[in-house]
Amino acid sequence: MRLHRLEILAFGPFAQPTVIDFDVLGADGLFLLHGRTGAGKTTVLDAIAFALYGKVPGARSEGKRLHSDHAPEDVAPKVVLEATLGGQRLRITRSPEFHRPGRKTAVSAKATLTWLDGERQHLSRIQEIGDEVIRLLGMSADQFFQVVLLPQGDFARFLRADNEEREKLLEKLFDTERFGAAEQWLAERRREAGEALAAQRQQVVGLMDQIAGVTGQPRDEAPLSEAEVWAQDLLAATRAEVGSTGDRATARRAAYETARRALDREQRARTLRERAAGAHTQLDDHAADSARRAALRAELEAAYRADPVVAAVHEARDALETAGTRVADRDVITARLGAAVGDPGAADIDGIELVPVDAGSVPETADLEPALHAWLGGLGRLDERAADADAVTGLTGRLEKLASAERALHRERDELAGLRESLPGRLEAAEARLREAEGAAVALPGLTDAAERCDTAVAAAIRLVECRGELVAAQTASVDAKAAHNDARAAVLHLRERRLAGMAAELATGLRDGEPCQVCGSAEHPRPAVAGAEQVSKAAEAAAAEREQAAERVSDSAHALVNELERTVSTLAAHGGDADRVELEARRRAAALELADARDLANGREQAAGELARLRTESERLQDRLRRCETELGATVAEQDAARSQLEQVTARVRAAAGADGSLARRRTRLRALVQHTEELRSARAQVAAAVQLADSTLARAERLANDAGFVLNGPAVEPDSNSTAERLHAAERRRAAITAQVGPAARPARWQQETATALEEAELARHRAQTVLDEPEVGAALAAEPADLTELESGLAEAQELRDQAVADHSDAQRRVAKLEQLSGQLWSELERFAPQQARFEELEGLAKLVAGRGQNNRQMSLRSYVLAARLEEVAAAASARLRRMSGGRYELVHSDRANARNRLSGLGLDIRDDYTGRVRPAKTLSGGETFMASLSLALGLADTVAAESGGIVLDTLFIDEGFGGLDADTLDAVMGVLDELRAGGRVVGIVSHVDEMRQRIPSRLHVVRGREGSSLRATVA
Length: 1023
Known about the structure:
Elements: E1 2-9, E2 18-21, H1 22-25, E3 30-35, H2 41-53, H3 60-63, E4 78-85, E5 88-95, E6 110-115, H4 126-137, H5 141-147, E7 149-151, H6 152-160, H7 163-173, H8 177-215, H9 227-288, H10 290-342, H11 369-384, H12 386-501, H13 503-508, H14 538-577, H15 581-603, H16 605-658, H17 664-708, H18 725-743, H19 750-775, H20 777-784, H21 790-852, H22 864-887, E8 892-897, E9 910-915, E10 920-923, H23 929-950, E11 958-962, H24 970-983, E12 989-993, H25 997-1002, E13 1006-1010, E14 1017-1021
Parallel strand pairs: 3-12, 3-13, 7-11, 11-12
Antiparallel strand pairs: 1-2, 1-4, 4-5, 5-6, 8-9, 9-10, 13-14
Helix pairs in contact: 6-23, 8-21, 9-19, 9-20, 9-21, 10-17, 10-18, 10-19, 11-17, 12-14, 12-15, 12-16, 16-17, 17-18, 22-23
């Protein structure tokens, strides 16, 4: 850190702006800040501290009044410091809070930081500026006040102070916050561990209360270490109780079972006697109903014999119904085939005559196979002619396309012929346009020049009228300006004459008593001239002269404008501006139109040449297209003739195959319909024959079953009158009716048969069950035994059950208590296992917390912060001793002491003096005044070096040492000055604050603070 410049305004005793140039003042490396007491020497140091940190050292900061009482109240106090901090040159401007008259609230403090050697952003917030200064210097305000501004009185007190006071200062200088945080952290961990241990203890006690509640005994007040044994004893006693209650419950269960079995036997005997009485009743009822059951059994057997016959009759009925349906379907198909065969359009079909038709229907006995064979052959022949039909379609379409192409070719030939006839005229017109465009292109430059000359003449005529009007106005203004200039010149001459007339009075105004006159040289002025009422001053004459010069400039400008306009009028007239404007405008429009027409023609030259070339190319292309069109037209006509001939041949073959239907498709459809009807009729005939055959076989089986079952069929056998299907079906129906008449009376519904059979079986089963009951030996024994008193047995069982339930409840309660005790005991043992390590951890944390706090087993009674500060103090003592030995001629050095103090007071921060003359160490309080100053100065310098190293090795290029030199003899002062000379080695600047006269003789560069009634001021003396 190096200071360059300090400005002070309305700050402390300095009311007026005050500037200190430290670069000039400290060029020699050592300067003296001196002045009378109260002049403001310390205020200079306060201004430096305030500029950097926004506050001043010591008790002066408590007053919070930095505004100078000598300065007006509305002048804001301000301090400006230019310095190099951390290798960066900057300017800091600060204004403290102050009260301005007329305002109820104070004016807030302000600050700015400006970087003088970089492009960094300037700062204007107080907090940001303070943080930046701390970052650059690497030390806080308290450290700076002790390291850079060395107050010797404070270090003398530090030298003689006890450990507690010394600790307070060292904590300001050295950052021990992290070690204090470590102490607090350990204390907090000890407190948390204590709370966790208490909570764990409460958990154990709560479990012991629950165990005592389960057993019904009071909780043991023994130590927690015996809780496990106490719980085990209670658990063993409860387990023994479970054994005794279990034995009692077993005996009660056995007595209950004995009483229950006796009651069950008597109840069983009573039930058996009731069953025997019921069995006798059932046997009597069965014997009385035997005749009715015999009749039902006979009827049921007849129904069983009729069932197969009835089923066969039902099958025959279904077969007859199916045969009737098949006959109806066959008749429909027969009529359909007859209609198809009888259609006149089918008369020319091969094989149609093979199918006879009677009354629109085909007879049942007609043979269809020959006709079907012929029709299938006809379909095959039609398939062979399908290619011819496709050929007819293709040839027809081809002829239509060729006809369309022929028409298109005729149209194209006619169009091409028309174009060929119009082409020569178009070629002649294109050649004429090209010749006209080329002529216009040749004449275009001359027409352009003529049009430009006309435009220039018209513009000159218009401008000439304007300039002549401007010339008249300018000539008038020039005359007026010339007249004004003459008037101004006359006024100047008039004022000058009047001033010369009153020049004596003007000179008299500059006369002073005792000073010589400028005219006569006399120092006495008995009758000076007096100015009259019309006296003209020098200023009035000068103002008139300026007005005359301004009028002259205006006149010259007006005359120059007239000359310029006259030249312009002459030039415009030379360019034709004097001609008639109407004639000029007409000539200009004609030239412009002629030029535009020529340009249009010239611009179309390339287009005309292209059009001519295109027409010539189109002529050649028309000739080619016309020849090609004639060729294609001849080929199309020939192709049409060949296609018509082929179409006529194919059409004849198709017509022969289609016959009366006219087309192969219709003939194919008719043949397919005949084939389909024939095949359907053949299938229907087969189905009818099968259905009639099934009906006959089913009836035969029904007749056979009836005979086998013992049913006699009355009347002769039924035979059909003929072999027709209808007659056969009628005969079969009569046979079915005869079987039904014989078997029907014996038939019974299946449900009746099932219910009757079930009833007969149940009656027999009931008889058998009743007889079985009477035959049981247990029933016989019950009937032979004497009945017992059932009420007495039930009362004995209830009493045995009550005793059993009580014993079981007692046993269950004991088991429940054992289970609960086992659960709680397990939890208790788990909590006791966790309690022991928690207690050990708490004891360990408690020992560490006491150790870092300077209590317990800490024999030196030093806290962790004190130990760190003691190490720093030892470094300070070593650095200070090197300078103290130099100042004291090798006699004294500072010794750090860490011995314990009495009554548990803070130890480890002691400072003693070793006297080399005696070889003994003694307290620093035994030093004399001068010796105390040397030790304090050495201590301050050593502390400054240690703190600077602690702050990152920052070089402190500027130091201030405040007071303490008055008590030194000449030799000691020489030694001290030698040490101070070493400090300024390497470019360091040391400022000594002192009012001792001898210091002014020893230090040539001085800054004298002068006290006055208007405030203090500074006077610098540079060597």
